Amino acid sequence: MPYIQYENITGDGSATEFTLGQNFRNGTCRIEYNGRLFYEYWEVSPNKIKFDFAPSADDLVKVSYYTANEAGRLNAVRYLTPKQYLELSDSGNETPPEDEAIEKKIREAEMFIDAFCGFWEKADETQQLLFPRIVDIDNEEKYPVIPKEITKTTALFIDMILNGNNGGNEEIVEESIGNYSYKKSTSAQAETIDDKLLPIKVMLKGFRKLTGKMNINL
Prior knowledge:
By secondary structure, the chain is of the alpha+beta class. Helices cover 24% and strands 22% of the residues. It has four helices and eleven strands, in the order βββββββααββαββα. β8 (137-138) and β9 (143-144) form a beta hairpin.
């Protein structure tokens, strides 16, 4: 069965890591937590999910995912997973960061992309992130997917901005793009923020929509 739908996770108030019934296709996990899409987790391949906190026995948690042998499937909810970052990254780190550190950077990148891309109609009224949009729903399977360009841009953002290390005499400065702001190290020899963002802007061409209405779920 290539697509597992609504597999139950039962919490106990202390466990944060859960093993699913089958190995999943990386990026395809879609979690519903008490009836709403859930984002406070990351995938621990090949078949584990790690939550930021421990669900209780009273919480209704369901996971849907494609199995690992399903090739070519795009991400369902999160823009990037730690494993995908290690596969896509051009940073050349001999000692890659731990999954938890990568996950923190992924969440920063998701915020930036949403702020930059603006306003689209979301595929699900309970989703927090901008993507997938209504237009990203797979017409054949009715499965909302994150465009592959968004996943690749998330990895590039982490490499170019959050992993930047310019060396020399550094100072911390705050940069703002749209409604998103962050702090980074810089130096006299550092590239400007526009220089660094140019490849990202090119990859996001066609995904920016600055007019419209976007519902924000807190």
